[in-house]
Write a structure and sequence with these properties.
The protein is mainly beta. The protein has 1 helix and 13 strands, in the order βββββββββαββββ. The chain has a 7-stranded mixed beta sheet, with helices on one face. Strand 12 and strand 13 form a beta hairpin. The radius of gyration is 15 Å and the shape is globular.
Length: 168
């Protein structure tokens, strides 16, 4: 699902992103509920990036006020009955053309998927936040999702990958 958003892009730099687990649902600009692994997963676009709510877990990657933790390269924890893993990387593009191609490739890859949500913010067609469930099943042991946060001002794309797995 592609959402055209009327809200200005709130997080203008990759290094302004922070990470939080366990936050309640925040005000969302668009929400896509998807049934997967016997649970409803909510992919949520925020004015300040994204939130995913999956079973017992709430993951927020956004510009959060206060003393929020900076975006880690890796994180893991246990939640009741599950193990959670998170990874984030940032790709810096050398010029506008390379950046535009990378953003357009992500948007094209997710365009026809019912388990993906892409938000285009006003001001630049490459100011995009996208979320998608992983295509492959984790053998009924859990779910995974990926996100992309594109920053035209700095030509950076922050990519995250998360997994929520039932321990065997």
């Amino acid at each position: 699902m592609r959402a055209s958003l009327d809200t200005p892009y709130a997080d203008a730099r990759a290094d302004a992103l922070s990470f939080a687990l366990g936050l309640p649902p925040l005000d969302a600009l668009a929400v896509l509920p998807v049934e997967r692994a016997d649970m409803t997963v909510e992919l949520r676009l925020l004015g300040a990036s994204h939130q995913v709510i999956a079973g017992p877990l709430s993951e927020t990657v956004a510009c959060l006020p206060g003393d929020a933790e900076p975006l880690p390269g890796r994180a893991s924890t246990s939640v009741p009955g599950w193990t959670y893993e998170f990874a984030a990387t940032t790709a810096a593009h050398s010029d506008d053309t390379a950046f535009a191609r990378a953003v357009e490739a992500v948007c094209a890859r997710l365009a026809d998927r019912g388990d993906a949500l892409t938000g285009a913010f006003p001001g630049s067609r490459h100011a995009v936040t996208a979320l998608a469930l992983e295509n492959h099943a984790l053998e009924d042991s859990g779910i995974g999702w990926r996100t992309w946060h594109a920053y035209p001002q700095t030509r950076e794309i922050v990519m995250t990958r998360s997994r929520l797995v039932r321990p065997s």
